[in-house]
Amino acid sequence: MPLLEVDDVVVQFGGVTAVDHAGFVAEAGRITGLIGPNGAGKTTCFNVISGLQKPTRGAVRFQGRSVTRLPVNRRARRGMGRTFQRLEAFGSLSVRDNVRVARDIHRGLRGLVRPATADVDGLLERVGIAAYADERADSIPTGTARLLELARCLAGDPTLLLLDEPSSGLDESETEAFGRLLTELAAEGRGILMVEHDMDLVMSVCDDLHVLDFGAVIASGPPAEIRANPLVQQAYLGYSDDGADAADHTRTDLPPVEATLTIPAVRT
Ligand SMILES: Nc1ncnc2c1ncn2[C@@H]1O[C@H](COP(=O)(O)OP(=O)(O)OP(=O)(O)O)[C@@H](O)[C@H]1O
Ligand SMILES: [Mg+2]
């Protein structure tokens, strides 16, 4: 049984089909990449999985049970953690306090039945930002803020991590360290589903890939197979082996919409 199953999901925004009968899985202990051109529907899929977006049709199953009708907080309580493409940290709090708040939210979500005992400074060490612990979150570089997002996500001890463009803003050596950390997290048995544009990172750390184009999954498989797939080369990687120019699949029919995301209030 896969950790996460996305089954025939459709999302329509007015006349735009953002996700078009998409189906894919993510397994525990593996790093799964969800890739595709800008506007392909990757973030919308993440919103459906985490509960921020109700699908027009289709189902999401987590650990074999449907979560399609569950709100965000109930999915989080079951072990889904996510980071956002647009950073969501509290700017006026320190880096350490941001992780502390995230940990306490998870503690509240679980009603102290399974208290999150994450060691906040240990998490900062783990993601490599301990040196910034006392800095305000709005004063740190973007790459550091991405790692803070990851630490906040890990504070809930998630079984599944949904990471939306986690490496953007990281420099080369930070990206390498980040790749190693992802591999460690998967080795602990966690499932990781990652939207990522850095193809070097994707090809080096992912065990499985799913490619979205105009909302539909056009290919699924291991990285080597995906890289060699002519359909993928045309649609996404921007070239094909026969030298023909790839069609520009970036959606231009609508301007990108900045989704307004709210963190659910949690009573502790
Ligand atoms: N709330 C919304 N209302 C209307 N249209 C939306 C909304 N959210 C996304 N869309 C549209 O749905 C399509 C998919 O968007 P989505 O953000 O999921 O793509 P993406 O693959 O994450 O792109 P990127 O790589 O640029 O982050 C786009 O055409 C986008 O403009
Ligand atoms: Mg996106």
Q: Please provide the ordered H/E string of secondary-structure elements.
A: EEEHEEHEHHHEHEHEEHH
Helical residue percent?
Answer: 25-40%
DSSP strand tally: 10
CATH architecture classification name of the domain at 1-70 and 191-257:
3-Layer(aba) Sandwich
Major sheet attributes: 6 strands, mixed
Kindly provide the name of the CATH class of the domain at 1-70 and 191-257: Alpha Beta
| Ligands, deduplicated | adenosine-5'-triphosphate, magnesium ion
Spatial strand order of the main sheet: 6-7-8-3-9-10
Radius of gyration: 18 Å
- Could you give me the name of the CATH homologous superfamily of the domain at 1-70 and 191-257? P-loop containing nucleotide triphosphate hydrolases
- The number of helical segments is 9
Which structural class should the secondary elements be placed in? Answer: alpha/beta
As for the CATH topology of the domain at 1-70 and 191-257, it is Rossmann fold
Task: Indicate the proportion of strand residues.
Answer: 15-25%
